[in-house]
Amino acid sequence: IGRVLAAYGVGVVVAALLLGPRLDRVTRRTALTAGAALLALSCAVAALAPGWEVLAGAQVVAGVGAGIVLP
Predict the structure, then answer these.
(1) pLDDT tens-place string over residues 2-13
(2) 52-69 vs 2-14: helix axis angle to the nearest 10?
(3) Are residues 64 and 11 in contact, defined by beta-carbon separation less than 8 angstroms?
(4) How far is it, in rounded angstroms, from Cα 55 to Cα 29?
(5) Rounded distance between C-alpha atoms, residue 44 and residue 64, angstroms
(6) Are 69 and 35 in contact (CB under 8 A)?
(7) Angle between helices 28-47 and 52-69 (to 10 degrees)
(8) Whole-model pTM?
(9) What is the number of H-type helices and E-type strands within the chain?
(10) Which end of the chain has fewer CB atoms at under 10 Å, N or C?
């Protein structure tokens, strides 16, 4: 469980640091829609994950989606 939570945290931090300045170029609605779609899709993949490796990868992507949605 610890690795999965750490993977989510890494995704949030990476998205906030690397994507934050780039997201200033698009409208807030576009960024929220893209982030929410990415978060929802990765949560669906995580729910259906056959192993912890896929689960951790999906959580990284979910973290990126959450980092995009965060203000």
Answers:
(1) 888 899 999 999
(2) 30
(3) yes
(4) 28
(5) 15
(6) yes
(7) 160
(8) 0.87
(9) 4, 0
(10) C
Residue type, 49: A
Q: Return the pLDDT at 6.
A: 92
At 52, list the tokens: 């912890």
The whole-angstrom separation of Cα 42 and Cα 62 is: 5
Which pLDDT belongs to residue 23?
81
Read off the pLDDT of residues 22-51 as tens digits, 9 standing for 90 and up: 888 888 899 899 999 999 999 999 999 999
pLDDT at site 70: 84
Structure tokens at 2: 């610890």
Residue where the block lists tokens 């990284």: 60
How many other C-beta atoms lie within 10 A of the C-beta of residue 39?
20
